[in-house]
Design goal:
Layout lengths: L12 H16 L1 H12 L4 H10 L18 H8 L14
Length: 95
């Protein structure tokens, strides 16, 4: 059985703004709760990966030829890094 890979749709400015708002809301809401749980237990629960997969967040940076959205472009990355209110958590090595 082969998997059907859909071609990603390029995000226009409005769709990107919507996605960015959605991600920001998740990160500052449920994402913080997951973070606290992970820091308390030292474990990343499988339920977190299931939630991220269901929301489509795990495919954001994957190349479109591998079934991802291919959203990681220089414009996307620099726009996200320069977002107002975006801060780096202590100990996070992400940029």
């Amino acid at each position: 059985m082969s998997a059907v890979v859909e071609k990603p749709v390029a995000l226009d400015e409005a769709a990107f703004a919507d996605l960015k708002a959605e991600l920001t809301a998740w990160v500052t809401g449920p994402g913080e709760e997951w973070s606290e749980r992970i820091e308390a237990t030292g474990d990343v629960p499988p339920e977190l990966f299931a939630e991220l997969r269901e929301r489509g967040y795990l495919s954001l940076a994957a190349p479109s030829e591998l079934g991802g959205r291919g959203s990681r472009s220089r414009a996307t990355s620099s726009s996200w890094r320069s977002s107002p209110g975006r801060t780096r958590r202590s100990g996070c090595s992400c940029t």
